[in-house]
Amino acid sequence: MGLKILTEHINVPGINTFETYRKMGGYRSVEKALKTMTPDEVVDEVKKSGLRGRGGAGFPTGMKWSFLAKPEGKPRYLVCNADESEPGTFKDRVLMEKIPHALIEGMITSSYALGARTSYIYIRGELMFVLRILEKAIAEAYAAGFLGENILGSGYSLDLHVHPGGGAYICGEETALLESLEGKRGNPRNKPPFPAVQGLYACPTVVNNVESIATVPWIVNNTGEEYAKIGVGRSTGTKLISAGGHLNKPGVYEIELGLPVEEFLFSDEYCGGIWKGRQFKAVVAGGSSVPILPAQLFLKTAEGTPRLMTYESLSEGGFVSGTMLGSGGFIAMDDTTCIVRNTWNFSRFYHHESCGQCSPCREGTGWMEKILHRIEHGHGHMHDIDLLVNVSKQIEGNTICPLGDAAAWPVASAVRHFREEFEWHVKHPDKATAPGAVYRGAEDLAFA
Question: Keywords of this protein's UniProt record, alphabetized (predicted)?
Answer without folding.
Answer: 4Fe-4S, Flavoprotein, FMN, Iron, Iron-sulfur, Metal-binding, NAD, Oxidoreductase, Quinone, Translocase
